[in-house]
Design brief:
EamA_dom, transmembrane, AA-Vitamin_Transporters, membrane, single chain, EmrE-like, globular, mainly alpha
Length: about 300
Amino acid sequence: MLERKSHLDLLAMVLLVVLCASWGLQQVAIKVASVAIPPFFQAGIRSLGATLLILIWMGLRRVPVLERDGSGWWGLLAGLLFGGEFLLIFLGLQYTSASRAVIFLYMAPFVVAIGAHLFIPGERLRVIQVVGLIAAFSGVLIIFGDALILPSKVMLTGDLMLIVAAIMWGATTVVIKASSLNQLAPSKTLLYQLSVSAVLILGVSWLANEPSVGALTPLVIGSLLFQMVWVSFVTYLTWFWLVRHYPAGRLSAFTFLTPIFGVLAGGLLLDEPLTLSLLLALICVGVGIYLVNRR
C-alpha cells in the first residue's frame, strides 16, 4: 500500500537539500558544457541519455513500460510541459539576463502552491504558507534583485518566456500529483517526461540549425554526464518519488534553495563573486521553508 504523508520528515528534507544542491551545481555544468555543445542539443541529448538509463532501471526492477494504465495522455501532457519549460528557459536566456531569469523562474513554487490548493485534496493553502513562500522568494530577490531594472522590449520578451516556463514547471508538478500519474511508479512518470522532452528538444535543435558540437574535452564530457546520469536520472527520479509520497506545496518551497546553491557553486568553481547577501538570502529561504512546513 502506498504511504502518503501530510508533512515532510527528516528523510525528505535531507533528500531535498541534496537535490537542490545538485540542481544548483547543474547550472555550472551547463555553462561548462555549453563551450562545446549547443544549448538545445545539450538539453536534448541529456534527456535522451537519461531515457535510456530509466529504461534499463525499469527493466531491472521489472516495471512495465507499455502497460495499459490510463496514464498515456497525462504522461504526454507532463512530458510536453517538461520539455516546453526547458525550451523556453533556453530561448528566454537569449533575450534577458540570467539574473532576471532566476527571479521569474522561481515563481514556480507559487504556481505549485495555488495548483495544489485548487486541484489536490488535502493540500489547501494556508496564510502562514503564503507568508513562508514570500519570505523564501525574498531570498532570491536579495541575491538577484539588482537585475530588476526597467526592461527593454527585447528583455521583456525573454522575461515573458521565463514566466511561462515557471508556470509550466509548476503545472508539471500539479499535473503529476493530481492525475493518475501519481499512482504510477516514479520511474514511469519520469520516463514520460524524459522521452517526450528528448524528442521535442532535439527536434527544435535540428530546426534551429544549431552549430556543430565542438571539442569534447574530458571536462565537457564530465559535465554532460553529470547532467545526464546524476541530475536527469538520479535526482529527477528521487524528486518524483518525493512528489508521490509528500505534499507538493511543501516540497516546492525547498526549491528556493537551488539558486542559492547555484550562486555558491559559481563562486567556488567559477570564481564568481560571493557577498554577504548570500547569507542573508539563505536565512530568508530557511525561514520561508520553515513557515511553509510548520505544522
